[in-house]
Predict the 3D structure of the following.
Amino acid sequence: MTILKQLLNFYINSSIHVALAVCALTWVTILQFDVSLDKTVLYFVFFATITGYNFIKYFGVARFHHRRLAGWLKTIQLFSFFAFLAMCYFALHLQLKSLLYLVLFGLITFLYAIPLFPLEYYKNEQKNLRQIGGLKIYVIALVWVFTTVFLPLIDQGVHISTDIIIAAVQRFILVIVLTLPFEIRDLNFDSIKLATIPQKIGAKNTKFIGVILLVVYFLLEFFKDELSSNAIISTLIMLIITFLLLIFSNKDQSKYYSALWVEGVPIFWLGLLLMLG
């Protein structure tokens, strides 16, 4: 049991789970718009997510404590290095126009972890995008939208239609809502300066806003030109599960509640779409 738990912790802490979630949402887009499945894009998204998330999560730790890093962190560093090499390999097989957009969002990821403004402007505290009050959740959602909606379609040369714009707005909403249980969980740990949504309005009001956003998401589905019964059914089931996970989230949730189950919603959604055909 201890070995299984260690493997599960590595699976989560090394960002494999979140990478699979991002890949799942990318695949959902491919199914929604009936474009050919480009495994190169999926592989790139998988390894880029591991590289980006681990860079953001562990940059500070590795920078200031590199001489006494724990064994698990050294393992994740090595794993992330090979993920970075794989990301570079698959990036070379993407369309040039996709790479140009990726440079911009790669810069956003970099600035998310690296101090952005001069020291003196913030009373001797270095600030990156992640530390600017209230910005974190929207930066995450924006990067996820580009990666999971626009990247696979741009790489296939698909014209950006109204349906794609609606899907992008829906994806932005979904990522925001899926992030809320994490922010509720982190109420005990986040600095008040981050100004997260639960910090500003409380957990109860945060859940209420999340529910409203899920309703908006579902209503947007009916503004699309192309709509199928399978799409409506799968979307509704996914939203109900997201709703339940949001409602039952709290600041004392188990360590796996958000990191495993909430993060796993996109994977479940993909599986549902594949089963419905």
Summary: The chain has one domain: 2-276.
